[in-house]
Amino acid sequence: MFLASHFLLALAKVLSLALNAYLWIVIIRAVLSWVSPDPYNPIVRFVHNLTEPVLWRIRRRLPVVFGGVDLAPLVVVLAILFLEHFAVASLVEIAVGLR
Questions:
Q1: Most exposed residue of 13, 48, 54, 60, measured as fewest CB within 10 angstroms of its CB?
Q2: Domain ranges of the chain
Q3: Between the CA of residue 20 and those of 44, 53, 59, 91, what are the distances in Å?
Q4: How far apart are CA 2 and CA 47, in angstroms?
Q5: H/E element, 69
Q6: pTM of the entire structure?
Q7: Is 87 exposed, middle or buried (0-12, 13-18, 19+ CB in 10 A)?
Q8: What is the pLDDT of residues 5-25, one digit of tens each?
């Protein structure tokens, strides 16, 4: 059970890092939408390509545009925070219980 515990702890850490990285990418996407950057900039295209599939699915399922303001990034941020506090914390608790 020692190996399973450490595996789950490592999985929780990697998941936490990935969620935090994606959280920052979504925040950067929201800030970029305010300043109207060059769409041919490689960094802007990278951020757009990473976030648009998730944002598009949210926009398609939920009416998240109110008064011209797109709230899809807010929904994604809330989902990431939920996953951080639920999934990662659950993995850590399971790992600690296996020791």
A1: 60
A2: 2-98
A3: 19, 18, 22, 16
A4: 39
A5: strand 69-70
A6: 0.89
A7: middle
A8: 999 999 999 999 999 999 999
